[in-house]
């Protein structure tokens, strides 16, 4: 079992949304509750931040811009000029917010939502297609989280965290239609709650376990637990491949829901960690709609 090392002690309340931006040679992540976007350069170890008066949950690349999920809406952000343009409202109910999101192989945006009070079944999973058309794909979701696609683009893996299940859906790359196939992974309660995830080049899923002190490697074909990367923070929230060689795993963590005694024991909670990997990640797609 490998152990991740601390990359940057960002002390985020809820770090999420790790993303490798190759042309910057930098890892990006967000602090949801404080509305902060971070960029850490591997070239000069410089940290840059942008702040928004909204909860910030998702960073997706679109040319020289980002598409951000801010509270209940999507916006286009130019990091050079800091101009923000609102694109669409995902949810109209002010008691909801966006959570995890990703782009599929065709460049569509998939974004999930959840209740601010975590109430059961309040959230949904949406797809934003050509012309910024919003379509609800799943409902009665509680905490919409990890999204990943198989290497052939024919399967979507998805997590509604409280279920502790990674579900597999048949995925049509041409239309974006999905159909439930099976429960791929069932996470035992003793290992925490599945949160964000990504896929490696061998088709295996790396899942961040909130309350599980690590990122776990699962085989989505047979549900077998294959490996674990240990993290010096109990609440591990998400992970993404990147780095100059494509074989670094950036891991985000949270400080929320921790007592002072726990923070004393795990002082780097809310920081971002890095693991050197024997393999690279599967493709991560940019917005193209």
Q: Please give the count of helices.
A: 1
- Looking at the structure, the CATH topology is Neuraminidase
Number of domains: 1
Number of strands: 25
What does this 3D model show about the protein?
The protein contains one helix and 25 strands. The chain is mostly beta strands and about 290 residues long. It has one domain: Neuraminidase. The strands form six sheets. Strands 1-22-21-20-19 form a five-stranded mixed beta sheet, with no helix packed on it. The longest helix is centred in the last third of the chain and has 6 residues, at about 260-265. The model has no long low-confidence stretch (mean pLDDT about 95). GO terms for molecular function: calcium ion binding; gluconolactonase activity. Keywords: Hydrolase, Metal-binding, Zinc.
Summarize the structure.
The chain has one helix and 25 strands.
Main features:
54% strand, 1 helix, four-stranded antiparallel sheet, Gluconolactonase, hydrolase, 289 residues, 25 strands, mainly beta
Layout of helices and strands:
Layout: E1 2-3, E2 5-8, E3 15-21, E4 26-31, E5 36-41, E6 47-51, E7 56-62, E8 65-70, E9 73-78, E10 83-89, E11 96-103, E12 109-115, E13 123-129, E14 133-141, E15 144-149, E16 155-160, E17 165-171, E18 178-186, E19 193-199, E20 205-210, E21 214-218, E22 225-230, E23 236-242, E24 248-253, H1 260-265, E25 272-276
Parallel strand pairs: 1-22
Antiparallel strand pairs: 2-25, 3-4, 4-5, 5-6, 7-8, 8-9, 9-10, 11-12, 12-13, 13-14, 15-16, 16-17, 17-18, 19-20, 20-21, 21-22, 23-24, 24-25
């Amino acid at each position: 079992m490998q152990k991740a090392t601390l990359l940057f002690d960002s002390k985020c309340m809820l770090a999420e949304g790790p993303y490798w931006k190759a042309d910057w040679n930098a890892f990006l992540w967000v602090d949801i509750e404080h509305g902060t976007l971070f960029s850490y350069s591997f070239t000069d170890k410089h940290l840059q931040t942008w702040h928004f008066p909204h909860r910030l949950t998702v960073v997706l690349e679109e040319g020289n811009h980002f598409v951000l999920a801010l509270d209940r809406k999507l916006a286009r952000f130019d990091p050079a000029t800091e101009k923000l343009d609102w694109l669409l409202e995902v949810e109209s109910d002010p008691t909801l917010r966006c959570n995890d999101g990703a782009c599929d192989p065709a460049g569509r945006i998939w974004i999930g939502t959840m209740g601010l009070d975590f109430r059961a079944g309040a959230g949904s999973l949406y797809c934003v297609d050509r012309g910024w058309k919003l379509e609800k794909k799943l409902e009665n979701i509680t905490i919409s989280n990890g999204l990943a696609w198989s290497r052939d683009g024919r399967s979507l893996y998805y997590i509604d965290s409280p279920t502790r299940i990674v579900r597999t859906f048949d995925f049509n790359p041409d239309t974006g239609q999905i159909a439930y196939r099976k429960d791929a992974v069932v996470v035992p309660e003793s290992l925490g709650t599945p949160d964000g995830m990504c896929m490696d080049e061998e088709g295996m899923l790396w899942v961040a376990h909130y309350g599980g002190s690590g990122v776990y490697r699962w085989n989505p074909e047979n549900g077998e637990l294959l490996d674990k990367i240990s993290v010096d923070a109990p609440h591990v929230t998400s992970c993404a491949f990147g780095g100059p060689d494509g074989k670094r795993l950036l891991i985000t963590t949270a400080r929320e829901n921790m007592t002072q005694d726990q923070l004393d024991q795990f002082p780097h909670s809310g920081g971002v960690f890095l693991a050197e990997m024997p393999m690279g990640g599967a493709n991560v797609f940019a917005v193209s709609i």
